[in-house]
Design brief:
Blueprint: H1 5-18, H2 31-42, H3 65-68, H4 71-85, H5 104-115, H6 122-129, H7 133-144, H8 158-167, H9 178-181, H10 201-212, H11 229-236, H12 241-253
The structure holds heme C (2 copies).
């Protein structure tokens, strides 16, 4: 797969159709159409000459790390990440996300967003600043190739979380998470939908909050910073704090 654009748009639409509650009714317009324009306008690696309002051309996409990255070169570089993200990306502290088994497309995309100042975090901004494009691809395929180790769900929360994850919440137009994040929380590696299995629940809650309050990304196109980010901004705004907590506990126990 040389290009990500076709891959991204097709699973996006398929997932939305498959979701029990369609997102089509949500503002703004259909995600795929939105995506093409937004990517052209905001992609950090866009050529300076790219027309800012072009909507006919293909979206500018993150180069595919699976074809460019080297697990071996990534392993050498990744030791500087282990202090926070844990050995092989299985972080032990709940504030540091797990990277083991995460989609390489997603990891590469997020590293470019940190490096470009679109996703802001003092620790990660500093870490990403020194990474070359090749480093990013190597690190992405290295962490994608690691095995996530098990974490447990909170027994008082996971049943409600499972119901939301598998069926959504029709009353509040929340689609089932399983449609995009998969039955075992493995995500959709090729499309770059992140894995959620064995993810630290405290981290999941803070990310759901940051989508809901609009701070996950910064800049004039914060909600369309990635080809598919608008979906999570829309969904997270419809979740209650209790639902965030419950579903975060459920995915922490997935493997
Ligand atoms: C000093 C601690 C620290 C170090 C070292 C560090 N990170 Fe991070 N990383 C974080 C924190 C904290 C976050 C969560 C940021 C947030 O909440 O937005 C994060 C988030 C990430 C994410 C986003 C994960 C997701 O699920 O969205 C990626 C990818 C990432 N780091 C990769 C790396 C890589 C690769 C390295 C090594 C080159 C590295 N990090 C080194 C602290 C660190
Ligand atoms: C229509 C597809 C879709 C559905 C349904 C969906 N997600 Fe997502 N989710 C995504 C995509 C795509 C991303 C990456 C967005 C970005 O680029 O910021 C994401 C990102 C996330 C993240 C951030 C992961 C990280 O490592 O930082 C969390 C947490 C999350 N979703 C939880 C959920 C939960 C909980 C549900 C169900 C209530 C859900 N998602 C439903 C597509 C979806």
């Amino acid at each position: 797969m040389a290009k990500r654009s076709a891959l991204l748009i097709v699973p996006t639409l398929a997932a939305l159709v498959a979701a029990p509650v369609a997102l089509a009714a949500a503002p703004p317009a259909a995600p795929a159409a939105h995506t093409a324009a937004a990517q052209t306008a905001t992609a950090p690696q866009a050529a300076p000459t790219a027309a800012p309002v072009a909507s006919s051309g293909p979206p500018i996409v993150t180069p595919d790390p699976y074809s460019d990255g080297s697990v071996q070169a990534g392993a050498a570089k990744a030791t500087m990440c282990f202090a926070c993200h844990g050995p092989d990306g299985n972080s032990v502290s709940p504030v540091f996300p797990r990277l083991a088994g995460q989609s390489a497309v997603y990891i590469a995309e997020q590293l470019r967003l940190f490096r470009g100042g679109i996703r802001q975090n003092p620790m990660m901004t500093a870490m990403a600043a020194g990474l070359s494009d090749q480093d990013i691809d190597n690190l992405a395929v290295f962490f994608a190739a690691q095995t996530p180790s098990g974490l447990e769900a909170d027994p008082t929360l996971w049943k409600a979380g499972q119901a939301l994850y598998l069926s959504g919440d029709r009353k509040h137009d929340v689609p089932a998470c399983v449609a995009c994040h998969g039955p075992t929380g493995q995500g959709n590696p090729a499309a770059g939908y992140p894995a959620l299995r064995a993810q630290q629940s405290a981290y999941v809650v803070t990310q759901l909050q940051s989508y809901a309050n609009g701070t996950r990304y910064s800049g004039p196109h914060a909600e369309t910073a990635t080809p598919n980010s608008i979906m999570m901004f829309t969904i997270a705004k419809r979740l209650s704090p209790a639902q965030m907590q419950a579903v975060a506990s459920y995915v922490q126990g997935l493997r």
